[in-house]
Amino acid sequence: MAQKEMYWDHHIPLPKLAPVHAKITLALVALLCFINSYDGDFVFDDSEAIVNNQDLNPATPLNNIWGNDFWGSNLSSNNSHKSYRPLTVLTFRFNYLMAGGLHPVGFHVLNILLHSLISAQMLDIFSILLGGLVYEGGKRLDHAPKASLLAGLLFAAHPIHTESVAGIVGRADLLCALFFQLSFLTYCNAFRGASERENIGIHWIAASLLLCSAAMLCKEQGITVLGVNAAFDVLLICNVNVFELSHRLFLRKKRADVSELVPTGLFTRLALLSLGGASLLYARWKIMGTGPPAFTEVDNPASFAENVFLRIVNYNYYYSLNAWLLLCPWWLCFDWSMGCVPLIKSVFDWRMPWLLLLWSILIGLISQAVCSQDTQKRRTLTLSLVLLVVPFLPACNIFFRVGFVVAERVLYLSSAGYCMLLAYALGHCCFRWSKHKGLLRAFLLILLCVYVARCALRSHQWRSEQSLFTSALSVCPLNAKVHYNVGKNLADRGNTSAAIKYYREAVRLHPTYVHAMNNLGNILKERNELVEAEKLLAEAVHVQPDFAAAWMNLGIVQNSLRKFEEAEQSYWNAIRFRKKYPDCYYNLGRLYVDLNRHLDALNAWRNATTLKPDHSLAWNNMVILLDNTGNLAQAEVIGREALKLLPNDHTIMFSLANVLGKLQKYEESEGFFLHALRINPNSASCHGNLAVLYHRWGKLEPAKKHYELSLKLDPEALGTRDNYNMLRRKLDQLYKTLP
């Protein structure tokens, strides 16, 4: 366990701070980097994981969190993403409860504070891995204070963390990292006061495993801490020289010789870690229920490559991209799928040298880590590589297919290993080139300033979907999803003309992109470009026959084109693929009205309200249809039933008031009209119909008042003007008869 002081540490041009001051410094740097994201919106994946996730609502039973995935879907569903992170969802629910709703500020602030805490705690991690675990008088000694501080500064300010900190769903990575640290530090704490060969208490290993399970309940990556703990135990605690051990085993030395290198207590600890890890993996597999999630070629093209060789080549190219993002985190993108990284299909591809460069560097580092005569160098490089590689293993496609090409969030923990390597390299440069200390100090300052500036810029881009999506256009111009999201954002803000351009580009880049076809078809439908809209939507359902929304939209377009039979079939296809589809029943009812199939229309709208009791349009259309067909009594019953569910819906009040007026229930009708006007005082039709009610009722002055209010709001309403002129003539005759 003993380790001498790092001979190059004091050459690093940083102040030697007390541990508390160093941690405060790291927390403040982390805060500085990401503070401008505190008032950002919910963006990208936040919509599914937070805004549309009913598990956050306090009205939803708390038990649901333990049976649903991260996105709110039941784990037993075939459509579930299988990402089981209940502790992360619990913190989202806490934010919702504290803020009294979905207010993003609280979510962002907690993310920033978590990153600050993790950055401060990284000081202890780096101190142990770089300087060793040495106790004197019950106090741990720090043999690499400056190197630990430098690695901590690089970690706190690394721009690759922006997605995890500024994107709220990155909370999973932050919480996982926090429990990862606690598990590792607990394992280290077990050696306080113990000799190198002495067995430690099982309760410390149990506590470490418990914290590991908490990390897994935040994100699956948390289990990798067990690998880091094991490597730390082997390489630093027990001083095992892996190279020498392998050599002796190869030469079949006597067992006594081998045991000199490997203490018996190590086998016990590794066995407990292995047993605990296997138990956690088994439990995780059982929780998944129906098996792993089914990803598509769009999510991870390399995993669907033609043969094993091409898969391996493309996987390795993905690794090199991840390494490049750690080395030069300037080209950052919220999504790297859908053509952003074209597949390598030939050994003559210009990108092949990057793979060779990556493995040349890794092999060089591994050879130094294994064969170096410098014990400190060997251990530092090995532990840095372990911290770099092991947390990345779940994302490397070796054990199972993942649902992404590159994801910046998964590098949150791995970046700690990179920062260790970089701090070690910079420390040695400072030792070897001590004559150029001023130049090296300037380089470190510039590097940190560039990191902080890049974090601030990228955090600003994550504040809104508009800036986030448009920033990706220059990074991944071939990514159809980027163009789709830019178009969707423009459409949501009402700029449909500009949205069409990006939707068309998304379809051009990815001709089977059904969601882009569907959204483009919807816009064209609203612009009355029905023929092209029909063509796009028909292609969408041809590519994906179970795309219920596209079937419904195709039915709406066909109805507008008066292709009634095709429209009806499209609606029923949508309902077949999505059993509970109230909006489709609503549109089917509108089709039946056009065909004068009134009973079928009423049944369709009744189905819509059964599936969605607050479907205002379906309720209102039932009342209006029954009113228009003379079924006033039934219309009254339906209207009153609707208002029990939607007591403040002014459109239903308006329709029911019309029915009651025709039934000569004038006072009750007047009450509903006035209530509707209190909710929506600028409704010209409501003023006009109330005037008609007063006109029938014989209250001519109030009728005149509301006719005038209606015409003031809508001067072009001919029916209202005719009724108003009729009332004026009647009032003129009445005034003439008065003495």
Describe the 3D structure.
Strand 1 and strand 2 (139-141) form a beta hairpin. The protein starts with 18 loop residues before the first helix and ends with a helix. It contains 33 helices and 2 strands. 66% of the residues lie in helices and 1% in strands. The chain is elongated. It has a two-stranded antiparallel ribbon. With 739 residues, the chain is an all-alpha fold.
According to DSSP, the number of beta strands is: 2
Distance between the termini: 116 Å
Query: Roughly what fraction of the amino acids lie in strands?
Result: under 5%
Strand order of the largest sheet: 1-2
Mean pLDDT over the residues: 87
Work out the helix count.
33
In percent, how helical is the residue content?
55-70%
Structural class: mainly alpha
Low-pLDDT runs of 5+ residues are 247-251
Radius of gyration: 34 Å
Tell me the major beta sheet: 2 strands, antiparallel
**Shape call:** elongated
Short descriptors:
single chain, 739 residues, mainly alpha, two-stranded antiparallel ribbon, 33 helices, 2 strands
